[in-house]
Amino acid sequence: MSELSVKGLTFAFSSFVALKNVDLSIRSGEIVGIIGENGAGKSTLLNILSGTLHATSGSVTVDGEALAVKNYNEANLKGIWRIFQDPATIPNLRVYENLFLGHESKFLRFGLLNKSAMIQLARKLVADMQLRVDVRDVMHKYDFPTRQALEVGKATLLPSILGLSSGYVLFDEPTTGLTRSEVTLLLSRMRQLKASGAGVAFVSHRLQELFDVCDRIVVLKDGHVVGAGATAEFDEDKLHRMMVGRDVQNLAEVKPRARSDAPPRLVAKDLTIYATAAKDAHIRRAEVDHVSLEIGTGEIVGIGGLLGSGKNHLLRLIAGDMRASGGGVTLDGRPLLGSLKARKDLGIAFVPSDRGREAIVGALSVASNISLASGHSGALGFSNRIGIWRGRHEQAVTKAMIKELAIKASPEQTVGSLSGGNQQKVALAKWIHRDPRVMLIENPTAGVDVGAKVEIYRHLLALAARGTSILYVTDDLPELIRLSDRVLIMRDGGLVANLDNRSHALNEHELVALMIGRSQAQSLH
Amino acid sequence: MAHKQTTTLDDFGAAPAADKRFRFVISREQRATWLPLVALAVLIGYFAFKQHAFVSGLNITVMGAQAGPLLLISLGATFVVLMGSIDLSVAAVATLSAALGAVLLQTFGMSPGLAFVATLVLGAVCGLVNALLSTVLRVPSFIATLASGSVFTGVMLHVLDGSALLVDNDAISEIANGQIIPMIPNVLLLAVLAWGALAVANSHSRFGRYIVAIGGGERVAQLSGIAVTRYKTYAFMLSSVFAAIGGYFLLARLGSATPSLGDGYLLDSIAAIVVGGTSLSGGVGGASRTILGVALITVLSNGLNVCGVSPFTQEIVKGVVIVIAVLTTIDRVSLQQIVK
Predict the structure, then answer these.
(1) What number of C-beta contacts closer than 8 Å exist between A and B?
(2) CB contact, 8 Å: A357 with chain B?
């Protein structure tokens, strides 16, 4: 029996240790489930197993022999295959070309590609998978589940093409974009793979799927293996507790704040967005599904949810960066319509999480970044009516912001040269000096060190105390609990919970359970 | 504008990389400021030593008259480059403008002032076409302006009917070649005034600031609520209007419009912009820098001429110098995202 295993595996990005001393093995003919929070190290582990990253220390072996691969293609040659969250297919190539991409050398005849052999083998694969696919069609004619199934089929076939005894297939959250029946089909394909003698690793957030197909489960947390054993040894509660790891803390820092009786500042009703673009065709359900919410003046509301829960889409709908398919938003009783610019003028601020690409211009100075959203004329603006820039005003505001947020930089320094924490402060300062009515923030402290994190929390609390309503999404559970007056949980595009964090202290355990969803309908309390 | 790897790598590995990159940009900035000046001094010294006539009063005036139209044409296009796009239609617009001016002056007997206004309108229309292609139809500016330039050239050939048109009017020549200030041809005076105005607009107006922001990060600008499409349209229009002005003064200086009037101005203008220190990837540089590039290109062409270097060799030297200039000033990190 062959085995793909890692021993004492450690992986560090500069000073950040993503994996520490991990032991794990995948034997042929079994399915191993890997579970953990966002950032627990699951993807890093799969990246190392599939040759795209290289361990800092520790060993990766196949049948006791060190796995020396430089890249994913070489890992393929050793029989290791990965099913990505988004199928790694090239839309404009034909199905059979996609299936054997990178392995064309196996089909050479007199130095030319033996297409008929490729087509024949591809047809057999399609027949085995019971798919209705014409292998000579271009890939983009087929939807997401079909493309994924083709990838799985490719993984089944690969060892035989390469003359290997067995292969390993790594599934990286493959069910995220699938409907329930498609998930069932995928799971049965996994079982087929297992029966054919392949070793399977299955990363998923959905516990029930793991319980359904896995022989063993490995739980990762902050780069460590915190639990491993036969599936029967686990139940949902135990897994949740292991994933979260921290003592289920009843928050010390609950901020009892007076609930104002004023009418809500921001009201969203039935906000919905359907994926229509062809590239999103694999997501078949609504990405945001009839979400209604209310946010009071000066209230801080955090939204939690897994990747693909629709929480970021919801924020971007309100910001005006995406267009809703249905529903509407009102701000102080008036409809909030139009472009991002129009909404900005009404008092909406939006801080995206992809700092370098969306929030700041690295090549420009701190002052230029802080004035970026306020180049208009008028009281808050940095230019006069005929468009002349108010340089002195810009300097004054920049200095005030640098002082208020304790940004460690001079006004003329380029933002790209600052640390993550200071960059984030600049991204926030850009909006804070406008005293927005509603501030929408994606991951307020992503890529920020602990010290700056606390500072940013303090500034956001101060901002809310001045009357700005804050709606933010985060992947960081402690942050969700620490910063929010109220916590909303989204799952599969819908709002599944609205929890008051003032009267009732939330704990991470119940939030994780809500994000993942219980397999059986069962009440939490 | 994206140049990112995976999210995981970004989150943890990007900070040191970013630091390195921006240290590089700063040194690039310094190089971009000083190298053209040093190169200019070296070239002037070399040509003056080689051929004394190079520094004669007459030749300096001639250089001024040569630099004027190039400066006008390059100034507007600087804004397009600064916002991360490119305008390859400037030479075509300049020639079309000269052709239109010549026909209006000579055939229709229009006054020079009115003809000038007509060319301004022409420039605005050409710019609008480029902007429409680039923003609304989302054709990359490289191909959009290359194609529109071909169209403008075709229109120009129709206007001139394929042959040169002499403008028999002393007043028009006076506009360009007259010297309100002794030794300085009017066309250069005007171009320098325009340079001053646009340099100030670049750093002290909403338009200038927004163009730099768009060049630095179009998506950031958009998410900051900047009307990106509108400002890009302004930049394309500015570029074409200044190309048209340059073309009109070229006509005034030479006294006739020929189909080959603008030949060479496309490469020269882009070279002047880049040699001056405006990055082709956008966001770095500015109109104030372009005058240095124009001076360098002019000194180089004129010096080679005065020294009697064959026109064939001149082309080679110019090409090599431009490549060297770009190599020394370019931000290598952004190489992947260039050419759009």
Answers:
(1) 118
(2) yes
